[in-house]
């Protein structure tokens, strides 16, 4: 059981200051550490390893949160993480959310080299090209995980994977599948195509219709979807790299779909087509 009082009560302590600085991208990059907030993210981090080493290296918890989530704190300790009971003020100082949930973990970077993703010969990949909003990036990662994608690639023009908002928006999916970062879009497309993956650019102005592609039976093979910027989509030079530019049909009066919604539709369309071809695990399998 946790002690009755926190051991860390000052936001100015060295340990707290070091964790707080991880909200800055340059510090994250230098230390190769990032913050994971809330019970879901911390639980996933506690069970994850990077190259054999535990991903979670440090956990800050309020006394109340440590009591409520004793199982997570226990898993963190078993993983070798240093666990600190902290005051509400300290947790609020470290946290990047308006209403902290009482648990903040410090984690090792966990991105995967792009070459390792190619070597695994993935059948479904999401490529985030020019995606600048961290919430959208994290949500697309979550959609890719839910659809059964085997990898996500963030190009060098996209947001930082370890931005706290992106980590929160992934709701733990960041710890579930390989993610490569900083890959030039030209290299991403060429590498995936060389492994036999068909590259599709998702764009509202595409000359191919997603429904028609499904009806024609062209979606069952290995596929990578390239998703663009939230406001202006994919630039022409990026669309030109793809094997086809596909639009999600709008059957109602909506002007467009947001990035994460469009990504979910595209990824699930591929997942369904691949399952029909025996290429992906069915969610009904035991």
Description:
With about 290 residues, the protein is an alpha/beta fold. It is built from 13 helices and 13 strands. The strands form three sheets. It has a seven-stranded parallel β-sheet with strand order 9-8-7-12-10-13-11. α8 (about 135-145) packs parallel to α13. The radius of gyration is 20 Å and the shape is elongated. The model is unreliable at about 280-285 (pLDDT under 50).
Mind sketching the topology for me?
Elements: H1 14-20, H2 25-31, E1 33-37, H3 39-46, E2 49-50, E3 53-54, E4 56-61, H4 63-68, H5 70-78, E5 82-85, H6 88-94, E6 103-108, H7 114-119, E7 124-128, H8 134-147, E8 151-155, H9 164-170, E9 179-183, H10 185-194, E10 198-202, E11 208-209, H11 210-216, E12 223-227, H12 236-239, E13 244-247, H13 259-276
Parallel strand pairs: 4-5, 7-8, 7-12, 8-9, 10-12, 10-13, 11-13
Antiparallel strand pairs: 1-6, 2-3, 4-6
Strand content: 15-25%
Q: Indicate the mean pLDDT.
A: 92
SS content category: alpha/beta
Could you tell me how far the N terminus lies from the C terminus, measured between alpha carbons in angstroms? Answer: 38 Å
The dominant shape is: elongated
Topology as H/E string?
A: HHEHEEEHHEHEHEHEHEHEEHEHEH
How many strand segments? Answer: 13
Largest β-sheet summary: 7 strands, parallel
Report the total helices: 13
Radius of gyration: 20 Å
Which strand order spans the largest sheet, edge to edge or round the barrel?
A: 9-8-7-12-10-13-11
Q: Can you give the helix content as a percent range?
A: 25-40%
**Can you tell me the residue ranges where pLDDT is under 50 for at least 5 consecutive residues?**
279-286
């Amino acid at each position: 059981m946790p002690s009755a009082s926190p051991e860390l009560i000052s936001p100015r302590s060295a340990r707290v200051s070091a964790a707080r600085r991880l909200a800055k991208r340059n510090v994250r990059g230098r230390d190769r550490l990032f913050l994971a907030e809330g019970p879901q993210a911390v639980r996933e981090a506690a069970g994850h390893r990077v190259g054999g080493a535990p991903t979670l290296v440090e956990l800050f918890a309020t006394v109340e949160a440590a009591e409520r989530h004793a199982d997570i704190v226990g898993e963190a300790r078993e993983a070798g993480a240093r666990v600190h009971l902290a005051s509400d003020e300290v947790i609020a100082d470290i946290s990047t959310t308006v209403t902290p949930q009482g648990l903040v973990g410090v984690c090792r970077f966990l991105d995967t080299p792009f070459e390792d993703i190619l070597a695994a010969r993935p059948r479904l990949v999401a490529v985030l090209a020019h995606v600048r909003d961290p919430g959208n990036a994290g949500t697309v990662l979550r959609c890719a995980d839910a659809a059964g994608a085997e990898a996500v690639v963030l190009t060098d023009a996209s947001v930082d994977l370890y931005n706290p908002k992106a980590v929160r928006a992934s709701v733990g999916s960041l710890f579930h599948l390989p993610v490569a970062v900083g890959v030039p879009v030209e290299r991403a497309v060429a590498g995936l195509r060389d492994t036999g993956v068909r590259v599709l650019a998702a764009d509202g102005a595409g000359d191919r219709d997603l429904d028609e592609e499904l009806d024609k039976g062209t979606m069952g093979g290995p596929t990578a979807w390239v998703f663009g910027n939230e406001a202006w989509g994919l630039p022409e030079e990026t669309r030109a790299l793809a094997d086809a530019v596909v639009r999600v049909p709008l059957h109602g009066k909506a002007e467009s779909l947001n990035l994460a919604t469009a990504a979910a539709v595209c990824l699930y369309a591929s997942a369904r087509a691949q399952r029909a071809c025996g290429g992906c695990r069915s969610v009904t399998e035991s």
